């Protein structure tokens, strides 16, 4: 039976949860997730977790923070002046907003604290700092995609 190796295109169904059991994502009711193993399309722990599986295999993988979205970066938490928000905006802790940086890139942030003068915004990935658990089922292994090598 063919086992998953780096470069294969695979399809998996998955259920992702935090170590406390809270679900953060699932492919239930959707098409399976398709990705090229080893290409960086998914977090390293997920990539490593499917290696060696055969179609029909089901397993649970525990992914430490270092192989997931990394630790929370304190430099990604910024104080933003309250005066820079629209006056009619009802800010709430946990609110998700999008900011634009000087190059025009959109950066998703979460309001973590609201003070008299500043609002604390966290631009870390929502799963940064978390160990993750995935239940995965390998649905399909495809051939490695064709590549054109230039001389």
TrEMBL record:
Keyword Nuclease: no
Residue span, PPIase FKBP-type domain: 7-101
Top enzyme category: isomerase
Catalysed transformations (reactions): [protein]-peptidylproline (omega=180) = [protein]-peptidylproline (omega=0)
Region forming the signal peptide: none
GO molecular function, one term: isomerase activity
Subcellular location: Cytoplasm
SUPFAM superfamilies tied to this protein: FKBP-like
Keywords assigned by UniProt, alphabetized: Chaperone, Cytoplasm, Isomerase, Rotamase
Superkingdom, taxonomy of origin: Bacteria
Family the UniProt entry places it in: Belongs to the FKBP-type PPIase family.
Function: Also involved in hydrogenase metallocenter assembly, probably by participating in the nickel insertion step. This function in hydrogenase biosynthesis requires chaperone activity and the presence of the metal-binding domain, but not PPIase activity.
Name of the featured protein: Peptidyl-prolyl cis-trans isomerase
Originating organism: Niastella soli
């Amino acid at each position: 039976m063919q086992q998953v190796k780096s470069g294969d295109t695979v399809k998996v169904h998955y259920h992702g949860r935090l170590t406390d059991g809270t679900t953060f994502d699932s492919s239930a009711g959707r098409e399976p997730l398709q990705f090229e193993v080893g290409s960086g399309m998914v977090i390293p722990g997920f990539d490593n977790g499917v290696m060696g599986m055969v179609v029909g295999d089901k397993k649970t993988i525990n992914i430490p923070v270092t192989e997931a979205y990394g630790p929370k970066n304190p430099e990604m938490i910024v104080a933003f002046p309250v005066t820079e928000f629209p006056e009619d905006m009802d800010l709430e802790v946990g609110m998700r907003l999008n900011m634009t940086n000087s190059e025009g890139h959109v950066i998703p942030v979460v309001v973590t604290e609201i003070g008299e003068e500043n609002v604390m915004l966290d631009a870390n990935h929502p799963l940064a700092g978390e160990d993750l658990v995935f239940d995965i089922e390998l649905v399909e292994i495809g051939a490695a995609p064709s590549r054109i090598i230039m001389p």
